[in-house]
Amino acid sequence: MFRKKTKSLVALSLLLSALVVVSGCGSKPAPTTPTPAATDSKEPIKIGFLGAKTGDVAIYGLNTLKGLNMAIAELNKDGVLGRQVQLVEEDNAGQKDQAINITNKLISQDKVVAIIGDPTTGITRVAGSIANTKKTVIISAGSTGTNVVEIGPYVFRDTLLDTIAAPATMKYVIQEKGWKNVALITSKNNDYSVSLSKIFSDAIVANGGKVAIEEFIQDKDTDFSGQITKIKAVKPDVIVFSGYYTEGALIMKKAREVGIQAVMVGGDGLQGDDLMKIGGAAVEGSISYAGFSPEQPTPNTEKFINAYKAKYSNELPDLFAAQGYDALMLVAKAIKDAKSADPEKFKDTLAVTKAYDGVSGTITFQASREPIKSPVYLLEVKGGKFALLKKVPVEVK
């Protein structure tokens, strides 16, 4: 009897177990607490800002930052892939060692997916090497010198290249203005200046001009008496300076003191309000090139200018603000097109950007990821302000 009851209980137990298994196969699983990975898609997309907020070149970084904040506000109206965009700001004070520390922090600690900056060529090179190694997209909204995108596939820029703009400028200076006798000044501790002087020198010769004399200074120098005395002796038609606005202003003040009437010509490194504040009347007529001008705007550019003026007390944007805005918008577009905020994925969609209608001009990335921008804006200091002198179209091949 006992054996029969035991067998019956065992059979009943097996039957009930089978029923439980069958019913379990058709039921919904019990709700579980989401893992952190499941909520990642709602976390902000972090973008790092790399630039100077203090120091000698702070104007470049601060204006880039203004453009970035314009882009952030616009993007966050609808979000990017359903996520907000968060800007992580740092200040490298224009120093390479600080830029190295900040770049590492932005990537390793802050977990940014892209870095906008630096506006200068030298810092972009060192930061670009780190970002490329760590597979994080970096796009400079200011660097125009050589050996930048060559660093690797994660390194971009949306600027007007010196290799395009400097020859266009010298063609105007020599062939249209007839200024063939050139005094060239290089700041030898400035990577941007050294690189640009070589491009200017080649363009001067190619357009039928002559480098009558080349003099050298260093950033932060304030006494240029020796260089200007030598330059005066060759009676230049034009002084080409490849450095930044502070030294440019002081050079021209000294040139005017000794009676040199030639105007100064340079790259976008001359474009800071301090050129006029320091140089005053001595820099009137100075010519520099840029990838942006608020004059004769396209409809897209005009919309940006009006919004910028409304946000920043009627201030007009400069090229760094416009290129900073475009840089972040290009990254956001690439993320949307790739349907991913993973730099390994959206770097490829960014690289194939064609005829992007930016506020700083039409932007196309070549196979090398170098940007072609059109037009080249030649700006002249007129009445203490930068005024549009000429628009030079660039052929995109």
Set out the fold topology.
Elements: H1 2-25, H2 36-39, E1 45-50, H3 58-75, E2 85-89, H4 96-108, E3 114-117, H5 121-133, E4 137-140, E5 155-157, H6 162-176, E6 181-187, H7 191-206, E7 210-217, H8 225-233, E8 238-241, H9 245-257, E9 263-266, H10 273-279, E10 287-290, H11 299-311, H12 319-338, H13 343-351, E11 356-358, E12 361-365, E13 371-374, E14 376-382, E15 385-392
Helix pairs in contact: 3-12, 4-5, 6-7, 9-10, 12-13
Detailed description of the structure:
This protein has 397 residues and is an alpha/beta fold. It folds into two domains: 43-159 and 297-365, Response regulator (Rossmann fold, 3-Layer(aba) Sandwich); 163-290 and 380-392, 3-Layer(aba) Sandwich (Rossmann fold). 44% of the residues lie in helices and 19% in strands. It contains 13 helices and 15 strands. The chain has helices at 2-25, 36-39, 58-75, 96-108, 121-133, 162-176, 191-206, 225-233, 245-257, 273-279, 299-311, 319-338, 343-351, and strands spanning 45-50, 85-89, 114-117, 137-140, 155-157, 181-187, 210-217, 238-241, 263-266, 287-290, 356-358, 361-365, 371-374, 376-382, 385-392. The strands form three sheets. Strands 7-6-8-9-10-14-15 form a seven-stranded mixed sheet, sandwiched between helices. A five-stranded parallel sheet has the order 2-1-3-4-5, with helices on both faces. Helix 7 (191-206) links the parallel strand 6 and strand 7 (210-217). Helix 6 (162-176) packs across helix 7 (191-206) and helix 12 packs across helix 13. The longest helix has 24 residues, at 2-25. The radius of gyration is 29 Å and the shape is globular. Residues 1-40 have low confidence and may be disordered.
